[in-house]
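Methods — Computational structure assignment.
A single polypeptide chain was analysed. Its primary sequence is given first, followed by the predicted tertiary structure written as structure tokens.
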Amino acid sequence: MDIQTDHRQKLTVIVPCYNEEENIEGCLESVKWADEILAVDSYSTDRTLDILKKYTTRILQHKYVNYAAQNSWAIPQARHEWILIVDSDERVTPELHDEIQKLLQCGPDKDGYWIRRNNYLMGKRIKHSGWGRDIVLRLFRKDLGHFKVKRVHSKIKLQNTGILTARLDHHSVSSMASWVAKINRYSSWKAEDKFEREAFAPILQLLFRPPFRFFKDFVLRMGILDGWRGFLIAAMSSFAELVMAAKLIRMGLQNRRNP
């Protein structure tokens, strides 16, 4: 049965992207039902823009500083009251599409909604390792979409929220090279956040955080049940902690040389 849309509240889907020619079409196909697709491109140099033009005329370009800054800039550009942020490596499932449409038709009684994610690694859904409990606040009222200023894992802070039943599909790792590159970027941002807050003891983090992170993901978070993929996730998470701690140490040394 088709949903009547006479009184349905309208939705803008914001898609941040940069050099996502391998991912972006699948993402856009999953959100082409939206009232508006607002693509925010960080000056891609591959075929991303050509693909975007097949799905939307609203393509804005803005220099990427961090996730919070990019989305905070994009949200006021949206034309509609409700916002759904979908990253290029995510897909809105048919079940999530139906749930959002029904919500907008009936009238949302919350200011924002959390959405769980199905995370995939090398073709298989990861049910443990910390990835199985992933949840993000992505559907919200435009005028309340304010991100906390933070380079990594920035979030919108809302009090009146609900949780949707259906899920996003998330394919965050397209290759080992992209995974290592992502760790390099995120470890730098995380180290900068910690350094600015002076909330760190870099030598202790270097010694203890990597092994504890492996133990946490593989044992406490039951990554062992994800098989070799769970081992790989734990190992890469441990590596990310190691790199972040090393960068903190380097920042501290540079700060002493150039007070």
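Note: Helices lie at 24-31, 48-52, 67-74, 94-106, 176-197, 202-220, 227-257.
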